[in-house]
């Protein structure tokens, strides 16, 4: 079973953390959308986070969404929601396990979010494309690398591909962008 995870197109946040805020996506780069659509190929089932930015991205790529799943929402950043990125605390010096356990006031930790997302991913039995968030992609990667998944870059409109085998999960590709299609 192949799992393709597409992070939504760039969110229109005005330089502020979106998290659970329901913001639009900038799907205006039709060339990037077309290239990503070709990279994805046959998506199998298409499941989305119910976030507007994810549904807009799926529509811009011409995918018919077979369902939405609230468990796929981005991490709830609590009091950090809506803050400018430069005003957020820098947790970069913490070890990945401590970052994963950190819970912003009124929000959830990465571990909390992963506990919500991972049962949904484990329940999949057919090839599936999930259109969701950077946190959702990192939660999937944590199936293979644990809290170190927080160190992965997950650009807007990027594709991550995983495969479930008899021995567990394997990562085929991470953070593929439309520009990657043109690279040598």
From TrEMBL:
KW Membrane (keyword) present: yes
SUPFAM superfamilies the record matches: Phosphoglycerate mutase-like
Database matches in Gene3D superfamilies: Phosphoglycerate mutase-like (3.40.50.1240)
UniProt keywords, alphabetically: Membrane, Transmembrane, Transmembrane helix
Pfam families named in the record: His_Phos_1
Region forming the signal peptide: none
Transmembrane segments: 139-159
Keyword tRNA processing: no
Domain of life where this protein originates: Bacteria
Name of the protein: Histidine phosphatase family protein
Source organism (scientific name): Paracoccus methylarcula
